[in-house]
Amino acid sequence: MKTNNVLLLLLYVALALLAVHVPTTVSVTCDPNELQSCAPAILFGTTPSSTCCQKLREQQPCFCVYVRDPAYKDLITSPNALSTAQKCGVTQPNCPPPPPPPPRA
C-alpha cells in the first residue's frame, strides 16, 4: 500500500510541470487524484488514454499550485511525465514566481 501511495505521489508531481498556465477565471477543483488515469503513462511510459489527456487539460489551472508543493516539486521532471503531456498536447506551465515570505519580526 505504501508503494502505491509513493507511485501516486510521483504521478501527481510529474504532472504538475506539464501544463500551460490557464487564466484563473476557469473554475476547477484542484485534486491530484483526478490524474490517476495517467499513472500508467507517467510511471511506465505507456500511451496515455483519452481520459488521462482530458484530466490533464482539466487540471491545468492547478499545475502551478502542484509545482509549488514541496511534496510534488522534486518529482515533476520525469521524462515519462513530459512525454505524456506532449502526447496529450499539454505543454509545461509558465508559473509566476511564488510571493516572497513575510518579513521576520
UniProtKB/TrEMBL annotation:
A single GO BP: lipid transport
Pfam families with a match to the protein in the record: Tryp_alpha_amyl
Alphabetical list of InterPro entries matching this protein: Bifun_inhib/LTP/seed_sf, Bifunc_inhib/LTP/seed_store, nsLTP2
CDD domains, alphabetized: nsLTP2
Source superkingdom: Eukaryota
SUPFAM superfamilies (UniProt xref): Bifunctional inhibitor/lipid-transfer protein/seed storage 2S albumin
Signal found in the keyword field: yes
Similarity-based family: Belongs to the plant LTP family. B11E subfamily.
PANTHER family in the record: BIFUNCTIONAL INHIBITOR/LIPID-TRANSFER PROTEIN/SEED STORAGE 2S ALBUMIN SUPERFAMILY PROTEIN (PTHR33214), BIFUNCTIONAL INHIBITOR_LIPID-TRANSFER PROTEIN_SEED STORAGE 2S ALBUMIN SUPERFAMILY PROTEIN (PTHR33214:SF69)
Protein name (record): Bifunctional inhibitor/plant lipid transfer protein/seed storage helical domain-containing protein
Lineage: Eukaryota, Viridiplantae, Streptophyta, Embryophyta, Tracheophyta
